[in-house]
Amino acid sequence: MSDVVTMDDLTNKEIMSILDDAERLVPVAKGDIHLPLLEGKVLANMFFENSTRTRMSFESAMKRLGGSVLNFTSVGTSVAKGETLFDTMQMVDGYADVAVIRHPRQGAAQYSADAIGIPILNAGDGAGNHPTQTMLDLFTIREAHGTLEGLNVALVGDLRYGRTVHSLSHALVRFGATLTLVSPEGLKMPVEIVSDLREHGAEVVETSDLAGVVPEADVIYMTRIQKERFPDEDEYAKVAGIYMLDSSDMSGAKDGMIVMHPLPRVSELHPSLDNTENARYFQQAFNGVPTRMALLCRCLGVKVPKKVK
Ligand code: CP
Q1: Ligand 1 pocket residue status of 261, Cβ below 6 Å
Q2: What is the full DSSP assignment across 115-137?
Q3: 9 partner at 20 to 30 Å CA-CA among 86, 101, 166, 245?
Q4: Which pTM value belongs to this model?
């Protein structure tokens, strides 16, 4: 089975091997080396929800490796006529070799993986998981710190609805991270996830105080408050803009501390931060290309050469 629906679909050894492959593929991702490893293969990009980075980086990854892409959105397709997810995915099974799916409903990626034979990569299912984002996040952390082991990571913002932090927290504790979960009361990490992290031996601290965590963190992972998942606009208004970082906040940080964000940002990261050496969010977004190249190769059973030239 080569689906990636949650981080549980990858062992730590597989994670490291994919990150190693991704590292070697960086010059291909930049267009400096031509390496058509996926020539003749077709990716179906199935986006039932908005995306800029995930969709485009998968498309860039597939095309840089010589493959082609079928782009699907729920607007302008037969979803508007009432076609079910099951039926839509049956079509994809016949049209492509691998499918990426983003869907507003939690569990939709697993449902799709169970319904069809080609490999499925979960590109975000509601407030559930976003494992390919986690892979590029791990790549970015390892790139900056040289290791994934034993880091002090602060996850900040909407930990209730933010699927990126659900997947990332699971992965980080498998590498011995200490996690500080920073959120307002109403947006805390779901209790079942926190319990699970602790059962895996993680040291987890919960707080609402962002300023207090800056001096100890190796990584500060900011997230957007997920307005679209709030049942009530007034509830969103109470927490919108609650956490912000700017360049002046970096003076109290450890050497080498990095600020990450899955993007898009709203007001969490002031533009004054963009040119500091702490800011990694644009590099993080680029890292989606080599990381997704490595994931596509794995799903399609294509080996990345040990020397890429
Ligand atoms: N990080 C992320 O998932 O971005 P998009 O929603 O633009 O794909």
Answers
A1: no
A2: H-SS-EEEEEETTS--HHHHHHH
A3: 86
A4: 0.96
